[in-house]
Amino acid sequence: ILGEASYDYAYDFHEGLAAVCRDKMWGYIDKTGTIVLPFHYDEAHEFIDGKASVWFNGKEGCISKNGTFTADTNDEFEDEDIGFDDDDIDETDVDTGGVDPDVINDLWETVTLNGKECKVSLNLYGLAQYTIDNKFGLIDEHMNAITDPVYDEIIIDENSPILVRQNTMWTYLNRNGTILSKNTYEKAEEFSSDRAAVSVNGKWGYIDLQGEMVITPQFDESQGFWGNHAVVIQDDTSNVIDNNGNIVLRTGYKTVWFIENDLLYVSDDEHCGIMNISGKTIVPCKYDNIGFFAEGLCDIEKNGKYGFVDIQGNIVIKPKYSFVGEFSEGLAFFREDDDMSSYGYIDKNGKVVIKPTFDNAYDFTNGYALVDEIGIKEVIDKNGDLVEDPAEFDKYQLFPQSVLEDVITQNGLQTPPLIVLKLLVLLRDTTMCSKDIYKNVGAETEFRKKVIDCALKHDPYELFQKKENDSFSCREE
């Protein structure tokens, strides 16, 4: 998940959004890491068919992607374990930088650094964390310590300054471990478009890559920059600012976020539409839900039916499906009727190119997609034909080969362990093989073999639904 380490807990992305927890309150981020629904919820869960179950102001119900809350009056969730309460968040995670202690114990590698034994994490970006006595430091790709273990939390992002927390205050480091700025902040976010949002005395502003405050803290809430613009909230109204902090658009709406370059999702709390950076209405504010643009088309929902609009706001596929996915490689999966109907694929003209015969469907990557058929995962091509030998699917690169190489086969540093496990469990289920996974990902070392053994050992549902205080071990039974 983008920005996962900056939160106390984070779900995976579903339908373009991920539920994240900070200070025991929940909100939602998009795939750029931008906060699109503020931290207003006592409990929040993944979006399914445009709705997510939440607890809000002591009431259970569901929200749409524009944040509209509908209280549950039928007690339909009462007997269903759909998540966990604030008390379920393991307070020991705060002492371990938001990292599951079992993950540190079982999957962080034990090394000797400067004469001391410590645990070392994995990361994709040429840096890794090490921990001694529940404090964290940084090492480079040559296993040289570039900071002392003095931090309570570290967030490493690609090619950007590193966000660190000491006690309750945040600051930034250069990638060589030196302090970017001596200033500290109550709250801070990762960089996007060379700006990072920081909170001082309860107000948000922005710093640049040199750590200089370039936009004075003055906003009640802020989002990350999307190119040269960002959405900020003052007095319950969202405005758009440029990278100097000047207001370039007063939207008149409270709920606003970028969904494409110069295009904004806007909502009046009942319906939503799309506005451009000049304030021109592109899509009237009359829809129940609007997603994100992919390959030039954006999904829209009206009265429980989904269709698509283009960047000019033209309806290219009328809302008539009970659910749709985003377009990938020219195709989007769809479901025609109710929750019990099957999935197929349409092209950008709305023509059905793969008939709806599947129990579930996923995006296309490099010409192939995963589908569920009678409870079994299969691989299909763009004609809808099944790939005969899914155990050899790695040659089709359903996951980019570079990701697999970075995750497992590099000698250097890799991704956060829980992400590794989730990817490998999905890979295992997709290939419908077991130890053959070794030949696919090249587990030459005992450590990599240990990671894969852990992935093979755990049930996907258990892993993806794991609560932070649940027991979780990769040790041999």
Condensed summary:
The protein is mainly β and 477 residues long. It is globular.
Keywords for this entry:
477 residues; mainly beta; N-terminal domain of TfIIb; 4 domains; four-stranded antiparallel sheet; 38 strands; 40% strand; disordered N terminus
The number of helical segments is 7
Low-confidence stretches: 1-5, 74-95, 390-448, 455-477
Spatial strand sequence of the major β-sheet: 1-2-3-4
Number of strands: 38
Largest sheet: 4 strands, antiparallel
Strand proportion: 35-45%
The gross shape turns out to be globular
Furnish the topology, listing elements before pairings:
Blueprint: E1 9-10, E2 17-22, E3 25-30, E4 35-41, E5 43-44, E6 51-56, E7 59-64, E8 69-71, H1 92-95, H2 101-107, E9 109-113, E10 116-120, E11 127-132, E12 135-140, E13 153-155, E14 162-166, E15 169-173, E16 187-188, E17 196-200, E18 203-207, E19 213-219, E20 221-222, E21 229-234, E22 237-242, E23 247-250, E24 255-260, E25 263-267, E26 272-276, E27 281-287, E28 289-294, E29 297-302, E30 305-310, E31 315-321, E32 323-324, E33 332-335, E34 343-346, E35 352-358, E36 360-365, E37 368-373, E38 376-381, H3 401-409, H4 417-431, H5 437-441, H6 446-457, H7 460-464
Antiparallel strand pairs: 1-2, 2-3, 3-4, 5-6, 6-7, 7-8, 9-10, 10-11, 11-12, 13-14, 14-15, 16-17, 17-18, 18-19, 20-21, 21-22, 22-23, 24-25, 25-26, 26-27, 28-29, 29-30, 30-31, 32-33, 33-34, 34-35, 36-37, 37-38
Helix pairs in contact: 4-6
